[in-house]
Amino acid sequence: MMKQLNFILLAIPCVLFSAACSRSSYTADRRVDYSQVDDPMAVQVYLGSPGGGMDVKSAGAVDGVDSFAGKNIKVYAFSSEEGVDWREEKAPSGAPVCLVNGLEARVEGSDHRAWWLCEPSRTPVYPNMELCLAPYDFYACYLDDCNYTETRTSDAVYLNLSINGHQDLMSSTAPQPKEGSFCYVNARRNVHPVFVMQHALVKMRFRVKGGLLEGVNPEEIAVDDLKVTGPSQGRFCVAGKEQGLVLSGSTVFPYQNADGTPADEVTVWTSSDVETPDSDATFIGGEEACLLMAPASEYAYSVHVGNREKAYENKLQLPQGFQAGKVYTFTLSVYGHNNVVVTIDEQPWEKGEELEGTDDV
């Protein structure tokens, strides 16, 4: 959850702050003494605690805002005046349409503030004087090491990219202040955008265990070469009303160890008397291994089991599909060389519930 940031109200003589910074329109307020709002005011942004932490190159969850330290986010800010086209230079009031144009920032410590990664002369500043109430909306994203190209429309920014299964993508829209919008006047009052990053991908973990085969001697069976097929190319809306990821196509993603090397073979024993509990299942690649996939209604998968010449191939499905910002743990129960049953546990990034699986192989 987002940690509350306690800001100190700065008293500014001769300036009346009863004027709200409207989100939908802008009108210079004649009650403001504009001679007192001529000092430059740098744009500041902050990070709240991400829901459930971050995953970086499938290295496992990193909890808390402190874990953003040393990681770059990309920030956009656009005018929220009516009739604004994000491709234009000026809003109807004359204020800049784009206040922050994809500038990178980084949290250096535990104070929540993200510092701009640019020369001091390029630090974004709010328009002041007669434009001191010009309102802005703020957006941020985390892109790991993805390569991308940008497409901008009248009201959205899209990043065209592809994923490799080991990169985390996150985005956020800064909630507007309870009164007014982000503008010069409110920034002077220490009212700044705070981003709570949300995961755009699905986190998948796999584990395997031996199944119960009554009347059959226990047998040692090897499981390896797990692969998942899903969408990989498309666009990520990082600024606009509908932030989110839409990918298509079909790419095979090999399941790997947490360090990026091929996942080790896992050996399980079938049982003739007691079903192995899920708690005793072995995580393929270790407990920190995972795939970070685009949300989808279903995925295809294959896995080599025992002495079969060909790998099993089937689909992973849930009635509601696989949703961004959730962790799915797939348990492969091996009932001999010719039968595998998959059950699925769904969790939010922090806690969740167990669901019925849908796949029998």
Describe this structure in words.
The protein is mainly β and 361 residues long. The chain has two domains: 34-199, Fimbrillin-like (Immunoglobulin-like); 202-360, Sandwich (Immunoglobulin-like), CATH 2.60.40.2630. Helices cover 1% and strands 40% of the residues. The protein is built from one helix and 26 strands. The chain has one helix at 184-188, and strands at 45-47, 54-55, 61-62, 72-79, 98-107, 113-116, 136-142, 148-152, 157-162, 170-173, 194-195, 198-199, 202-210, 220-230, 233-239, 244-248, 251-254, 266-269, 282-283, 291-293, 296-305, 312-322, 326-334, 340-348, 353-354, 359-360. Strands 11-1-6-5-4-7-10-12 form an eight-stranded mixed sheet, with no helix packed on it. The longest helix has 5 residues, at 184-188. The chain is elongated, with a radius of gyration of 25 Å. Mean pLDDT is 82; it is low at 1-30, 50-65 and 351-361.
Which characteristics define this entry?
disordered N terminus; Immunoglobulin-like; 1 helix; mainly beta; 361 residues; 7-stranded mixed sheet; 8-stranded mixed sheet
Q: Write out the strand line-up for the largest beta sheet, numbering strands in chain order.
A: 11-1-6-5-4-7-10-12
Number of helices: 1
Structural class: mainly beta
- Please estimate the helix content: under 10%
Spans of at least 5 consecutive residues whose pLDDT stays below 50 are 1-30, 50-65, 351-361
